[in-house]
Amino acid sequence: MVACGIVTKRHRQVSDLSPAWQNLWEIVRASKDKSLLSVLPRFIFFLDRIGVAPGHVRSDHALLYLEAVEQNEICKAPLTTYIEAVMGWNRAVDRLPAWPRQRLERPSRERRVMLRETAHFPGFIADIDGYLEMRMRPDLLALDATLRPITASSAATYRYMLLRFASHVVEAGVPVEELISLEDLVAPARVERGLRRMLERTGGKTGPSISDTARLLLTIAAHRGLPETQRTALARFKDRLAVHGTGGMTTKNRDRLRALRATGVLRRLLRLPEQMMERPLGEHRTRALRAREDAIAIGILLYCPLRVSNLSTLEFDRHLHRPGKGQMFIVIPAHEVKNNRPLEFELPPHLVAMIDRHLAERAPLLCAPDCRYLFPAARTAGPTAANSLAERIKKRVRTEIGIDMNAHLFRHLAVMIYLDANPGGYEVARQMLGHSSVSHTISVYSGLETISATQAFAAVVDTLRERS
């Protein structure tokens, strides 16, 4: 079938995987857990092939996997294969600390609503693909060019969402022959019927899938220039079905930050990198050198609240600049940052000294002398995977300090420390984190000042009490 062009060739060698997925697969293999080894490989290779990073996997990607198994592989039970993959993913979340934390929705045994593409009018499929192509590669010179390009993985997700919604519309009683273009799909009357059908399947409750679908349909209506009355109707559906976040940090992150306010805990964390660096290498030099890498990573996060995806890929010359003796700057260009904002931090002298000392001792046990990465991978010539470094940091802090703290929590800690010392200093916090607007920083971190505010109020009450 591959030779005849009926299906594409499957890539099943570990070397075919991207570094992030390769690292995760090695963790699965090392676990020797048969319930994971039997169901995850094909799913992992599929996700990597469509360009979805481990931390970005969602339930819709699993449904894309089901569609691919149905259309491109000889399989007796595609639905069972899909269900086992989702269950395997969630088992990995429970059993493997390094596995991404997001769980996938448990698939229902109810009949899935998804028409085959061949059931649709060919022009309808072509219109969807043309629209998504425009979203991935918008005309930058067009007079009304306001679109930001979307990634290929986002386009694949949107394509699935549109075909799934079209199937709901048809199941609600609309003849499939009436769906000739996207304009037909986003007509308010059809949108309402499709959304009502989706709500029937969820017991009348909205959720992320329904909310995201309503938002996507409104976006398409705006891009296609539909009349204001139609867009107003779709906007009403979107607002009523929206899944609103709680805003700010999660309760879990607030609880973890609160632990750092305990007497001595924050001080121990701040001193940890230098203390680890002073430990002798001993007989197990490779393990000790990796521990020093952890110390440097923690030290950098304490002064430079980077995302772990940027931290793990730091390169000498490209990211670590030395303008003068004893000085070192971390400089990350905008196109390498999640929100397209450049980052620049100066490292303190003691951290520069730690890095220099480590560089003088790490080769050849950890890497070649000319390795350009600050955190080299153990088995490849590239950088260590972001999720691997994040897991090491988490384990190290738990072992040394006794608290739960992941790499991303260092960003929250940086803001907490600064706002405690400088109440209302959100502009500096915004620049530290690389946020695009102060309003976003305030929406996430305004609650951090509550403790400082209540402590200040308590001090006023104590003063009045002592006077009386």
Automatic annotation (TrEMBL):
Q: Which domain of life is it from?
A: Bacteria
The processes (GO biological process) annotated in the record are: DNA integration; DNA recombination
Q: Which InterPro entries does the UniProt record give? A: DNA_brk_join_enz, Integrase-like_cat_sf, Integrase_catalytic
The answer on whether this UniProt entry bears the keyword NADP reads no
User: Residues in domain Tyr recombinase?
Assistant: 267-462
Instruction: Keyword check for Zinc-finger, yes or no.
Output: no
The UniProt keywords, alphabetically, are: DNA recombination
State the organism's lineage.
Bacteria, Pseudomonadati, Pseudomonadota, Alphaproteobacteria, Rhodobacterales
List the source organism: Maliponia aquimaris
Q: Name one Pfam family in it.
A: Phage_integrase
- GO MF term (any one): DNA binding
Report the protein name in the record: Phage integrase family protein
